[in-house]
Amino acid sequence: MQYHTPATFEDAAKIAFDAQGITRFLAGGTDVLVQLRSDLVEPDTLIDVKKIEGTNNITKNADGSWTLGVAVSGAEMSEHPELGNDWPGLVEAMDLIGSTQVQGRATLTGNLCNGSPAADSVPVMFATGATVSVTGPDGTREVAVEDIPAGPGKTNLAKGELVSAIHIPPRGQGGGDAYLRFIPRTEMDIAVVGCGVNLRVDGDTITEARIALGAVAPTVVLVPDAAAAIVGTKLDDAALDALAAAASAACNPIDDKRGTVEFRTHVAGVLAKRAAKIAYDRAKG
Amino acid sequence: MSKIHVTTTINDDEVEFLCDPRESLLDVLRDRLSLTGAKEGCGTGDCGACTVTVDGRLVCACLMLGAEAEGKSIGTVEGIATDEELHPLQQKFIEYAALQCGICTPGILVAAKNLLERNPDPTETEVRYWLAGNLCRCTGYDKIIRAVMDTAAEMREAS
Ligand SMILES: Cc1cc2nc3c(=O)[nH]c(=O)nc-3n(C[C@H](O)[C@H](O)[C@H](O)COP(=O)(O)OP(=O)(O)OC[C@H]3O[C@@H](n4cnc5c(N)ncnc54)[C@H](O)[C@@H]3O)c2cc1C
Ligand code: FES
Ligand code: FES
């Protein structure tokens, strides 16, 4: 295994493009090291992105949007004085990942690019409408987060491409987000279902919404029908029931000892309702 | 395989070592530097027996490469006592019998010390969540939590 510490994303992309065999990028390493130690994946080339300048920065831009460096840890997000005011659901979702020790290292980018359908920060990232900068041999482009995961453990990034920043849109007036997951334990477990909601209100009426589900399909999925079920409503019982039905209809889960198809499908609806209520309360302030 | 040369600080001493790129920081501490306080319980980030601090943040040493230690400041359980004097947490752990086999203890001490540095007055719930990544198969946790709470109270009085 070759270990590289490039100083720029362009160099990182070049090393990855020229590499033979298996390549991994190293952010917090909480997936890469586990896979390495359990002999699941031994990369031939490991490219540590943490020496690239700016990768630890959390920046609020002039328009109110946020730019997060690819090595920002969950702990740094939770400790940030303002990020959690704008995007509490995103920060809470990230904070669910692992222990204090894991929080010191784990990143949003790693959670996204590891490609797990159960990744906790990803549904709410989808819901926020986040985009990522992707740097490759031909330069940098901006891609919607929902275009990154391709299937369990897979992304749509091409050889030589890596994520170079995460962009979260401006929160703006009347917005609220939330993430809830179901796990059999209370801490340190993998989501059986996860649901991220982001919406905006004008008075009591929902004017915009984005809803995504985790762990119920081969990738995290955005569910436009669930969002449509609550836009234009005051989140009354009929809207909540329509939301739950749309969320359950979007499920195509696996069946395993942690949750049957029936259970996951039902819980997706329940979590969608609960997360929508939290986001709605936050949006109304 | 060519080795990587790393310069780092461990418990305030400058340390240099050569390691294979595959080696974890835990391997380096235990097998190259003879700092065997940090233990390997799982090797996959689940048990916390390998907990150390890196630039003041808790990390599982099994989930970090030795090569990543370059330029960092690492704290291990060996750095907690001063000369012959035990840290108040260590004293309380003995007093409360907050350990049996002791495998989890170095990790818990490092994690608890880090918590008390950030928050001298944690609630029991905060202590329990903070230590949720440190598994103990012997004590049932209660004595550990009480030892940490009592240390916090005593350190607040002392300061
Ligand atoms: C004890 C424990 C508990 C956990 N609990 C949870 C949990 O509750 N929920 C959850 O969702 N996850 C959990 N995880 C998994 C893991 O912590 C998260 O997925 C984490 O967010 C990964 O981030 P990282 O920075 O450590 O990624 P890394 O391990 O550094 O990288 C992960 C993947 O992303 C790729 N990658 C990294 N950076 C880039 C980049 N810039 N561009 C392109 N690809 C990149 C790597 O090649 C690799 O494939 C847990 C892990 C452990 C060890
Ligand atoms: S050995 Fe590192 S967490 Fe178990
Ligand atoms: S004392 Fe044995 S594991 Fe904690």
Structure description:
- By secondary structure, chain A is of the alpha+beta class.
- Chain A has 2 domains: 2-116 and 131-168, Uridine Diphospho-n-acetylenolpyruvylglucosamine Reductase, domain 3; 175-283, Enolase-like, domain 1, CATH 3.30.390.50.
- Chain A has 11 helices and 14 strands.
- A 5-stranded antiparallel beta sheet of chain A has the order 4-5-10-6-7. In chain A, strands 11-12-13-14 form a 4-stranded antiparallel beta sheet, with helices on both faces.
- Chain A is globular, with a radius of gyration of 19 Å.
- Chain A starts with a strand and ends with a helix.
- The model of chain A has no long low-confidence stretch (mean pLDDT 96).
- By secondary structure, chain B is of the alpha+beta class.
- Chain B has 2 domains: 4-79, Ubiquitin-like (UB roll); 88-158, [2Fe-2S]-binding domain (DNA polymerase, domain 1).
- In chain B, 34% of the residues lie in helices and 16% in strands.
- A 5-stranded mixed beta sheet of chain B has the order 2-1-5-3-4, with helices on both faces.
- The radius of gyration of chain B is 16 Å and the shape is globular.
- The complex binds flavin-adenine dinucleotide (FAD) and FE2/S2 (inorganic) cluster (2 copies).
Provide a short characterization of the protein structure.
The complex is a heterodimer of chains A (285) and B (159). By secondary structure, chain A is α+β, with helices and mostly antiparallel strands.
